Amino acid sequence: MSSEPTFSDAWMKRDLFGYGPDRPDAKWPKGAKIAVNFVLNHEEGGERSPEEGDPHAETVLHEFGSVLATPMGKRDPATESQFDYGSRAAVWRIMRLFKKHGIPITFYAVGRAFERNPAVAEYADREGHEVAAHCYKWRAYTDCTAAEEEEYIRKAVNAYKTTSPSGKVPVGWFYGRPSDRSAPLVAKVYKELGHELLYWADTYADDLPYWTVKPEGNPGEGLVMMPYTLDCNDFKFWQGQMGSDDAFAQHCINAFDVIREEGLEGKTAYITVALHSRWIGRPGRFVALKRIIEHFTQFDDVWFATREQIARHWAATYPYEPKAE
Asked: pTM score, two decimals?
């Protein structure tokens, strides 16, 4: 029986001080006082289903709550159809709105979802949106072996290459439910295949990007950590923590206003608004996104950017400086 590989956890070393009371000015392009990144999680078709060889139907982020409505091993057509709605109808409603306002976004794309609806991958590439990796299947990875997880990573890379007209492989990754070896495994695969790993987004630790040592990297190599959001995230509807579109919209607007005010005082930062097609794309919730965008676009000192753009700006403005251990 082979043993599981071990990886250094130096990249996960906690820093509870961070930037402290005097965080740096991000120096956003054109003097912007705030950067805004919209993330659209595209998971539809990559969720768990016995149709795809999974042991049971999906239990997360659908209208039934965390309910397994069918026996183990049986498909749940009602749940599957909710995910279908996100891919068939909702994603296009959302993208029409972003196109109307000329806002570039980041897709957190599940590789299998792109394989099952490559039209979304083609649209993202053609319209200049970023595709960040959300792994191959939308699932937890804590119960995989390292070999199984690595195979998922390789399948994801192939899915992005084959569904995107440009063949571009994502430079950023977000799992959502990673294992403690997920980042080292992605870095290992990328190093072997010759791809660039610029940033990792499974963090919620700051209002600015920050550096960590690159797992499986060469001496002196850093990895940009791009904090994501769980509060300005439409999955709050599913959790029952925000019961109305008004509550969600106002929360995101409040976050924007606070960070922009701090930017006007010389401490610029960024916010992320996280979305899921099958949630925010439903007509009754969609009005929340419209309100958010209408508020944000009132101001001429906002930089709407993808996560890749923000990470590259940060790396150029504040290059990695290895810390002496």
From this structure: 0.94
